[in-house]
Specification:
About 5% of the residues have low confidence. The protein starts with a helix and ends in a 13-residue tail after the last helix. It is built from 15 helices and no strands. It is mainly alpha-helical and about 270 residues long.
């Protein structure tokens, strides 16, 4: 016999299910409600597998299942593509925004999001599904690409070049704390740059002007481990949205100088 408590529980579960459907796009909700019982079992099986899968497995599935469709949609945003292309040229980055690169970056976005789940577990599937379902969000793939390409550029810089870059910025302290210090910390803990005798001028000069030696694979791994997808995308978005938000002088930053002076940053 079903007691009052059990009846209440059934109604609560029904309300919860209705609440989930309420947040779906109308077309998706209508499609779900139109499914036969057999088809609903397939959907539930997929939901069960997704919930039980590791973040990495979810990333692989989403990439296999959605990336080609997203690439074709993203390429329709020619205006943003041209803006990003112009910025890449400005920063002297030889990156061709073709379908192959976009496909690679969408897969990377999913993997990067899967890594973020350890820090922000509630944001992973939300960000992935937005990329699939939201036109505006799909266009933000370009924000991620631009932000990540610039982060890679900074990872390849010597500490002296990084210092010259951050000193060009209007808000130097914010830029230093948000980008430069995390990169230098990653350089140190991975022994890419090894500071020795930091208070001796010539010793400091040696490591401070050393260019990091990184393979492309290692560079991508370290960049994803150092910065979240949110930080990466916001970096690209700020540059697309505000011309000059990142002050850049290639000749000044990458010029070879005979003597290097190191102001004490504390």
């Amino acid at each position: 016999m079903t007691g009052p408590a059990n009846v209440q529980s059934v109604y609560q579960q029904a309300d919860l299910a209705e609440g989930i459907l309420f947040h779906m796009p109308t077309a998706a909700k209508q499609w779900v409600e139109s499914l036969s019982w057999q088809e609903r079992r397939y959907v539930l099986s997929l939901c069960h597998l997704m919930c039980g899968a590791t973040p990495e497995a979810r990333a692989e599935f989403l990439d296999d299942y959605t990336a080609d469709g997203i690439v074709s949609k993203v390429l329709e945003d020619r205006d943003t593509k041209e803006k990003v292309k112009a910025h890449l040229e400005k920063f002297r980055l030889n990156t061709d925004l073709n379908s192959s690169l976009l496909r690679k970056y969408i897969k990377q976005f999913y993997i990067h999001s899967a890594q973020d789940v350890r820090r922000q577990p509630d944001l992973y599937l939300e960000s992935a599904l937005k990329l699939v379902m939201n036109i505006e969000e799909r266009n933000h793939v370009f924000n991620y690409i631009l932000g990540f390409e610039l982060i890679k550029m900074m990872f390849r810089m010597s500490w002296y070049q990084q210092e010259k870059l951050y000193r060009l910025q209007r808000n130097q302290e914010d830029f230093l704390n948000t980008y430069i210090r995390p990169i230098q910390h990653t350089h140190k803990i991975n022994k890419i740059i090894t500071p020795k005798d930091e208070h001796l001028f010539f010793a400091r000069r040696d490591y401070y002007v050393k260019s990091p030696n990184l393979s492309e694979k290692k560079l991508i791994e370290l960049a994803m481990a150092t910065f979240t997808t949110e930080v990466t995308s916001n970096f690209g978005f700020s540059i697309i949205r505000h011309e000059g938000s990142l002050v850049f002088d290639y000749d000044y930053i990458f010029a070879k100088e005979q003597e290097v002076l190191f102001p004490d940053r504390g």
